[in-house]
Amino acid sequence: MKITEESMHPQSAPQTPPSDPKPAPQKSELEKLKAMCWKDRLWYIWAYYKVHMALVFVAILILQVVATSLYHSTFSTALYCIIINSYSQEETRFSVMEEDFAQYLNLDKKELITVETAYMTYGDNASELSYANMAKISALVFSKDLDIIIGDKETINHFSSLDGFVDLEKELSPELFALAESRLFYAAAEDGTKKAVAIDISGTSFADRTHLGQEPPLLGIVINTERRDNTDALIRYILAP
User: Fold this and answer.
1) Comparing C-alpha atoms, which of 211, 226, 215, 203 is closest to residue 141?
2) 168-177: which pairs have CB atoms within 8 A and are 24 or more residues apart?
3) Cα 69 to Cα 67: distance, rounded to the nearest angstrom
4) Are 218 and 151 in contact (CB under 8 A)?
5) What are residue 183's phi and psi, to 5 degrees?
6) What is the chain's Cα-based Rg?
7) Secondary structure of residue 88 in the 3-state scheme
């Protein structure tokens, strides 16, 4: 046998490459959280899930708004009244209209009477708040949502000059006109002619219970109201309780 250098160094067996170590099992999010203290948990949740939380919050908010809108759409307005410049020492009692008068009309729970108060000055004395309230009232009249204004003389004169009220001499039924005739308040319309645009309701039980503070409180029916049955019922409720 021929002796060579290679024969003197036997070939070593081919080496098997080491296998990759098994990866450590991944922990679930719940396991990660369980292993943390409360402070670390809060930090971890905020760091990794704040976007998800914000999206969930927005989705809940949208659902709430939609649900509220759908619920409110099942209600209807039976009467909308704004009481302007009632400078009374006692707080205005909305319940006289919202509850007592509602019961008088035999309304169900989804027929609402809305009453608000506002304070306004006119002409050169008009404030920013007055302009804001005027804009709101104009919008309510334009949308035919407002039915009644109870105000002082300056308020009734102002809106009468804009042709904002029904002419009560022409529009009231004979029955209601007989009740209101001695209490009618006349003011100039846009063309300068005097019209019966409001009813003086001072001294009535309604004015006392509502704590109206105008001197005197004057009630006018908005020119384009679509709820004349209920505006007339309110006059009857006040003058012939």
Assistant:
1) 226
2) 168/195, 168/196, 168/197, 168/198, 168/199, 168/221, 169/195, 169/196, 171/221, 172/232, 172/235, 173/232, 175/236, 176/232, 176/235, 176/236, 176/239
3) 5
4) yes
5) -115, 5
6) 38
7) coil
Q: Measure Cα distances from 20 to 15, 17, 23, 24 in Å.
A: 15, 9, 9, 12
Task: Name which residue leads in pLDDT, 127 or 164.
Answer: 164
Report H helices in 38-147.
38-72, 95, 102-105, 128-142
Q: Got the DSSP string for 125-142? A: G--HHHHHHHHHHHHHHH
Could you tell me the CA-to-CA distances from 13 to 18, 20, 81, 106 in Å, in that order? 15, 21, 103, 104
Q: What is the pLDDT of residues 123-161, one digit of tens each?
A: 877 788 888 989 999 999 999 999 999 999 999 999 999
Q: How far is CA 127 from CA 90, 124, 159, 207, in A?
A: 24, 9, 17, 27
- DSSP strand pairing (184-188 vs 218-221): unpaired
- 120-124, 164-168, 191-195, 223-227: least confidently modelled range: 120-124
Residue pointed to by tokens 């004015």: 207
> Mean of the per-residue pLDDT values for the chain?
83
Query: Which secondary structure element, helix H or strand E, spans residue 181, and what is its range?
Result: none
Closest listed residue to residue 94, CA positions, set 240, 228, 217, 209: 209
Distance CA 180, CA 237 (A): 12
